[in-house]
Design brief:
This protein has 413 residues and is an alpha/beta fold. The protein is built from 15 helices and 13 strands. The chain folds into three domains: 19-88, Orthogonal Bundle (Arc Repressor Mutant, subunit A), CATH 1.10.10; 90-202 and 382-408, Nucleotidyltransferase, domain 5, CATH 3.30.420.40; 215-375, ATPase, nucleotide binding domain (Nucleotidyltransferase, domain 5), CATH 3.30.420. It has a five-stranded mixed sheet with strand order 6-5-4-7-8. The two termini are 30 Å apart. The structure holds zinc ion (ZN). Zinc ion binds at residues 254, 264, 266, 268, 271, 273.
């Protein structure tokens, strides 16, 4: 999956076809299976990977000795079996999710199980160096609580609320983090943190996580909508993120809804975001409800029968539905996942989205698509950052873990 900017070249791969490469490929398949499922018995591993039971048994023995895997007794189908999982000592992943005014950092094992996390508030106009230094400080606070050292971090995935140019790695405009625009965030973060860092925008990461673990499971072509301060979409085609030629695919927040409408932060007029971004919605209610409301308050008031709050949410659903109808006509997804802060409004927004989609979309495309609420909530960006932290491919993880193998056996799980 070549979806993110790879900063560290993987020069350790042996030539294809050699006995070493076959062995490594088999090891990688087994590790990938464990990353996918967390824990498996040896029989399940054999079925899942297609490797012979004796091959699985040899790999498990070898990788357990080197500290990459951990086995413990379990009962499967009434019989005693060995449950195999990746050892914490095999390496850990770090996810860093930047929002408009916050940073959440999580540490997870290679099977994406979160072991520790911390959230801090940040000034929206903070400098990029300060944001990156904060990741390092949190990682250094969390790792010792897990009994782990920094050398076990095999990769960092970073989510930013801005488009990322996949050719240059540069953070583009419009960005919710003005201090980051024009910076090659992946390269600078790799230099600052001393481990490979991969970067993508928040809607793309939400799409990846929902596709893999949430409301996108079982769908082929997924569009994930992030409706928050900023509005964006992540498009996943058969499990792979579609980024377009430079990485800006899915910028639905800047679809023109009214070419003479309000000025948008992107420089255009009448973008969807000027109508449904949370500042716009709260702004509409300022005259009647004051300036102290959050979206959660608007939803609660609307559910309690407040006419103005209900109207604002329904109108937002209508505008998003019109933009989604255009998206469906062009992209023809089989599932639309509604996420971000506005998803809290559930039926209040989704029903008017569906009405607009039905009215504006071509009938065949509108009928073919299922519209569902996101399942992972605000966790989706963090989980998506873990997916890109691992590089999406286990040979690199394996190589990195092998480089640490002198230490891994000593790490307590
Ligand atoms: Zn715009």
């Amino acid at each position: 999956m070549d979806m993110i900017r790879e900063v560290e070249p993987s020069a350790r791969r042996p030539s294809p076809g050699s006995p070493t490469s076959l062995k490594e490929a088999n090891q990688a398949r087994l590790i990938e299976a464990l990353q996918f499922s967390g824990t498996m018995t040896q029989a399940e591993l054999s079925r899942f990977t297609g490797l012979a039971p004796s091959t699985v048994s040899n790999i498990v023995r070898e990788l357990t000795t080197s500290g990459l895997l951990r086995v413990s007794p379990t009962v499967s189908h009434g019989r005693t079996a060995q449950a195999v999982r990746l050892s914490r000592g095999a390496g850990v992943l770090v996810a860093a999710d930047f929002g408009h005014r916050h940073l959440t950092v999580a540490i997870a094992d290679l099977a994406y199980e979160i072991l520790a996390e911390e959230r801090v508030t940040l000034e929206w106009d903070h400098r990029v160096h300060d944001g990156l230094a904060e990741i390092g400080r949190i990682v250094d606070r969390l790792l010792p609580t897990l009994g782990l050292g920094r050398e076990l971090v095999v990769g960092v995935g970073m989510g930013l609320p801005a488009p990322i140019d996949v050719r240059t790695g540069e953070v583009g405009a419009p960005s919710q983090l003005p201090g980051w625009v024009g910076v090659d965030a992946a390269a600078l973060a790799t230099e600052t943190l001393g481990v490979p860092v991969r970067v993508d925008n928040d809607a793309n990461l939400g799409a990846l996580a929902e596709d893999r673990w949430g409301a996108g499971r079982g769908a082929e072509n997924v569009a994930y909508l992030k409706l928050s301060d900023g509005v964006g979409a992540g498009l996943v085609i058969r499990g792979e993120l579609y980024q377009g030629s430079i990485g800006t695919a899915g910028e639905i927040g800047h679809a023109t809804m009214n070419e003479f409408g309000a000025l948008c932060r992107c420089g255009n007029r009448g973008c969807l975001e000027t109508l449904v971004g949370t500042p716009a919605l709260l702004g509409q209610l300022a005259a009647t409800h004051g300036t102290g409301l959050a979206i959660a308050d608007v939803v609660a008031l609307a559910q309690g029968g407040d006419v103005a709050c209900r109207r604002v949410l329904e109108d937002a659903g209508h505008h998003v539905g019109v933009a989604v109808a255009n998206l469906c006509n062009i992209f023809n997804p089989d599932r639309i996942i509604v996420g971000g802060e506005l998803a809290q409004a559930e039926g209040l927004i989704v029903e008017s989205m569906q009405r607009a989609l039905k009215r504006q979309g071509i009938p065949s495309a509108a009928q073919a698509v299922q519209m569902v609420l996101a399942e992972l909530g605000s966790r989706s960006q963090l989980l998506g950052a873990l997916v890109i932290a691992s590089g999406g491919a286990s040979p690199a993880v394996l190589a990195a873990a092998r480089d640490n193998s002198v230490d891994v056996a000593r790490v307590a799980d």
